[in-house]
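Suppose a colleague, Dr. K., hands you the sequence of a protein chain of 482 amino acids and asks what its three-dimensional shape might be. Before reaching for any lab equipment, you can write down a predicted structure in token form. Begin with the sequence itself:
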Amino acid sequence: MLGSHLGGCPVLKIIRTMRHVTALFFCCMMTLWSHGQTLCTQQLQHAIDSVYEAGGGRLTLTKGTYLTGGLMLRSGVELHLEEGSTLLGSTNPYDYQPISIAHSNDARNDNASMALLMADGAENISITGSGTIDGQGLQLALNIDSLHYTGERIDPNYNQRRQRPSETARPKLFFLYGCKNVTVEGVRLRNSANWGLSLHLCQQVQLQHLDIENRAYWNNDGIDLTDCQHVVVSDCRINSADDGVCLKSYHADSECYDVEIARCDIRSSASAVKFGTASWGGFRKVYVHDIKVSDTFRSAIAIESVDGAQIDSVLVERVEAHNTGNPIFMRLGQRAGNRKGSIKNIVIRDLTCQVPFGRPDEAYDLRGPEVDFFHNPFPSSICGIPGNCIENITLQDIRITYPGRATKGMAYIPLWRKSDVPEQIDKYPEFTMFGELPAWGFYLRHVRNITLKNVQLSLADDDFRPAIVEDDVENMLFLLDR
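The predicted structure, expressed as tokens, is then:
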């Protein structure tokens, strides 16, 4: 017995059987605490450290609610949440401290390095079970906001235009940095003040059978994989107020490599599966398949290199998207000075999408930002920039229904003026970035070697624009099975 009562929170006993260590928490119940002011952070961290020091094993949270600030996971430790257990994030901003990642070669620091659950260079770590991890993100973010305005805790990067604390000031639900052999399986993940699962420079990762609802506040991505390698994300349900599954590359000398995203059900007020926006190193050998997308404001599939990333060897297949604002968006830009990226060898096949006339994310409290100009419905777009083309693209067995209802009175770009569409070389990538477009189905620009095989585009109502418009496209092949 390590202790009977620590800080008013009855805690644990440790059972050693061979090399397996299990810590059982019995009474750390929310009902014992007054207004959530008594935390289990110290006791939980002590238990994690004890299991680590004993050589590794499982730490089990039994039925109950455990209020805690940020916790650091250790090598060889499995955190197991039984059914009925909830790890509840504190709403006090002072209960979270960032990981020191001074050894990183990414000096931009444009997102939080603190979270409810953290790990730094750990190996063989697991978070399993059928319990819940809830970050109480809305109240935590509002408390951070209040401390900024009272002057007690100034956020130097506060977003004045959007009137909210910056992403550097708000804890994530998970932040795992430089870890190997990571498993997160079965748990319910809820309500971050920032991104949900954030893994940075991790290898050998399994994220399976997760139920993620992250729509409490802004920047509520579901899963973010930054320069991670050998990753499987499978059989997850994701409902997020920002991107569902997002691959990022912050390091010019690294990349997301050998990533599989399979059998996920994604709903998002941004994009369902996205490469970028941070795109410095690369994305290579990525396989996305058997994905269902619904009620998603932006793109079902977005592939973006705008900071110099090399994107190569991507296969996307068997995607069903309903009530989704944009089926496919590929963008090769150049916003990071002279760094030129590339997008090549991309196959998207067996994709079905229905695009509505109005907002597909209308039911969200936090909806994607409105565009500030009049426009007709946007097509899918695949766009490079002058002198740097997207290459070797195959679209096969694609079925998309667009809403139509475009009118010349709303906006009109005739084909003889298609060169007036702005290039937007150094702008943030988004399917609305070019303004009004002269096509209703696909807009293709600065592309080399593209094959469209069995691409079926249909309209729910009339549209005066042509289905496909190309500008600076070489070697475009249309094929139909007979």
